Amino acid sequence: MTSTPTYVPETFAPSASAAAATLEAGGGFIVELSSFSGPLDLLLSLIREEQLDIYDIPIARICEQFVVRIRTLGLNEAAEYLEMAARLLRIKAQMLLPRGDEEQWEDPRAELVRRLLEYQQMREVVDLLERRGEERRNQFSRAYLPQAPVAAQAPLALSLAELLAAVDRVLRTVARPDMHEVIPRALDIPGAILVIRSVLALKARIRWTQLVQRGAEPWQILSTLLGLLELAKLGELRVDQPRPFADVEISRDAASEAA
Fold first, then answer.
1. Does residue 74 come out as left (phi exceeding 0), alpha (psi in the -120 to 50 range) or beta?
2. What totals of helices (H) and strands (E) does the chain contain, helices first?
3. pLDDT tens, 55-87?
4. What are the backbone dihedrals phi and psi of residue 186, each rounded to the nearest 5 degrees, phi first?
5. How many CA atoms lie within 13 A of 111 on its CB side?
6. Could you give the CA distance from residue 235 to residue 219 in angstroms, rounded to a whole number?
7. How confident is the prediction for the chain on average, in pLDDT?
8. What's the CA gap between 18 and 39, in Å, rounded?
9. End-to-end CA distance of the chain
10. Helix (H, G, I), strand (E, B) or coil at 48
């Protein structure tokens, strides 16, 4: 399949906006100029320039103007423009023919007038849309739009009763901590030392289980232990454990007794 070449008039070829030619499917050449978008547009422009009545077009005059204009534009090979020129010449020839019965005579310009009116209506719609589009672009430009400043928050307005009620609601949601009652018990180390000295005065060697009574309170056991350590530090007794986990033996220090 070979592509049909696109025609661009030589006088307008250097400018892309001056002329562009495209091929419609199954049609001939279409030539678009910067001033005219087709033969109907050129013909309508001539009618406006000459201030002619579109319903009573002087075909001979407008045909001459049209041919002169397409020669001026260098459109000698543009099929649509040439076809319109041929159509005008044919209408001109039909207008020169003698008329028979006036009631049966049909104006050969009727079809051309209909097409011109349709094109004029479409052109007005296109012009209106272009104007509206231009107005819209001017109204809604792409300029930078600063963001609206954030409104400052209003100060908190709260009465004392409302504040207390809010605090109470918060406290109700907090889990109550576990409270432990601690009873202070003072250690009686001097008392324990007196007991140890009294026992050792009676017996030279005793065991830990003999010194601490069964069922003694923790503070009593701790006081006895600290009393033993204090007397051992003073050199008044010795603390021995013959084997692991055996009962602790407490005896008077012989060196201390000799002194």
1. left
2. 9, 5
3. 888 888 888 888 888 787 776 657 788 888 888
4. -75, 135
5. 7
6. 24
7. 79
8. 16
9. 136
10. helix
pLDDT score recorded for residue 217? 87
Long-range contacts of 7-16 (CB under 8 A, 24+ apart): 7/31, 7/77, 7/78, 9/73, 9/74, 9/75, 9/77, 9/78, 10/74, 11/73, 11/74, 12/73, 12/74
The closest alpha carbon to 41, from 137, 153, 118, belongs to 118
Which of 44, 49, 124, 122 is CA-nearest to residue 84? Answer: 44
Element (H, E) at 116: helix 110-139
Specify the pLDDT at position 191: 92
- Give 171-226 as a DSSP string: HHHSPPPPP---------HHHHHHHHHHHHHH-SEEEHHHHS-TT--HHHHHHHHH
C-alpha span between 57 and 83 (Å, rounded): 18
Asked if 237 and 231 count as a contact pair (C-beta separation under 8 A), the reply is yes
- Distance separating alpha carbons of residues 233 and 104, to the nearest angstrom: 152
Q: Give the CA-trace dihedral at 120, 20, 86, 67, to 10 degrees.
A: 90
Helix (H) or strand (E) holding 82: helix 79-96
Per-residue confidence band for 192, with pLDDT thresholds at 50, 70 and 90: very high
In tens, the pLDDT along 193-231 reads 999 999 999 988 999 988 888 888 888 899 999 999 999
Show the tokens assigned to 33: 């100029």
Place of tokens 């739009």: 145
Q: What is the pLDDT of residue 137?
A: 79
Does pLDDT of 187 surpass 70? Answer: yes
pLDDT class for 103, splitting at 50, 70, 90?
A: low
